[in-house]
Amino acid sequence: MSETSNISVPDWSGGKKVQAGDQFLGLYQPSPETVGFWEGVKRRELLFKWCGECARAYHPRRMICPQCSSTELTWKPASGKGTVYSYSEVHRAPSPEFQKEAPYNVGLIETAEGVHFFCRICAESGARVEVGTPARLDFRVLGSGYLLPVFVIGSEAAK
Fold first, then answer.
1. pLDDT tens, 148-159?
2. Which residues, including other chains, have CB under 8 Å from residue 86's CB and lie 6 or more apart?
3. Of 115, 159, 126, 122, nearest in space to 141 by CA
4. How far is it, in rounded angstroms, from Cα 49 to Cα 45?
């Protein structure tokens, strides 16, 4: 995983400003269901909620298992392995802090646990992002200045 000094992890306790272009859309308030996820990010772990009854993984906003209605959900680390399920190349970023990184890829990674995880997809060593490409978890500081989980494809994905 990438080593970065002076990183910051979002403090969602006060909410986050939501903006589209120059329009302020309000304050996003985190839910109690996501606290474990963000605590994992601080430790560079991708955590999913797992159902104790039917053994399915979810990310992350679940209080009740949508499959079996169990409330026995616990946080467990993900394997860090996945495959590109869907993606989009962003040329016009949603905010100035991300524009300097454009073009970049975002999309869904189908993790080994069966969770479809939306994140930045980083292509290493000249690799092209394509559906079905193997990917591995990493943590990077993105244009927002925050440490976030990303998935990497290319020579780095084999590590």
1. 999 999 875 655
2. 107, 108, 131
3. 122
4. 13
Can you tell me which residue has the tokens 């990310």?
59
Q: Taking a C-beta distance cutoff of 8 angstroms, is the pair 108, 87 a contact?
A: yes
Give CA–CA dist 96/117, Å, rounded.
24
Residue 1 lies in a domain: no
Residue-wise pLDDT tens digits, 85-105: 999 999 998 878 788 899 999
Specify the amino acid at residue 55: A
The answer as to whether 3 is a domain residue is no
DSSP single-letter state for residue 101: T
Residue 154 lies in a domain: yes
pLDDT of residue 1: 46
Contact 109, 84 (CB under 8 A): yes
Q: Which of 100, 156, 101 is nearest to 124 (CA)?
A: 156
Q: Which domain range does residue 101 map to?
A: 80-159
**Which among 125, 156, 154, 126 is positioned nearest to 139, based on CA atoms?**
156
Q: Which of 34, 35, 32, 71 is nearest to 51 (CA)?
A: 71
Rg (CA), the chain: 16
